[in-house]
Amino acid sequence: MNPFEFVLTVLGMVFLFTLMKQRMRVRHRWEHPEVDADAGVETRQLRDEVRQLKDRIQVLERIAVEKEDTLSRQIEELRHR
Would you write out the chain's pLDDT as a tens digit for each of its 81 residues? Predict the structure, then answer.
């Protein structure tokens, strides 16, 4: 077997494997549609949770910045006394 035939054989095997894998994936979705529905619900819940966590982070950042600003203002007031 020369190198050209070897490369063609490997490419053919990869193509067949990919085709079989895709057919199995489609068949699984066809036989178990509730899995995709559950995945959609879970994805929605996770996105909501991420959004809530981002909102909390924004609040905490605002609190941290306000405290730093207040602290620096208090230090400046003490210096000017």
Answer: 799 999 999 999 999 999 999 998 888 776 666 656 667 788 889 999 999 999 988 888 887 777 767 777 777 777 876
Which helix (H) or strand (E) is 51 found in, with range?
A: helix 33-79
Structure tokens at 2: 């020369």
H/E segment holding residue 2: none
| Contact of 29 with 36, CB cutoff 8 Å | yes
Report yes or no: 54 and 61 within 8 Å, Cβ to Cβ: no
Tokens of 22: 């895709």
Number of alpha carbons in the 13 Å side-chain half-sphere of residue 62: 6
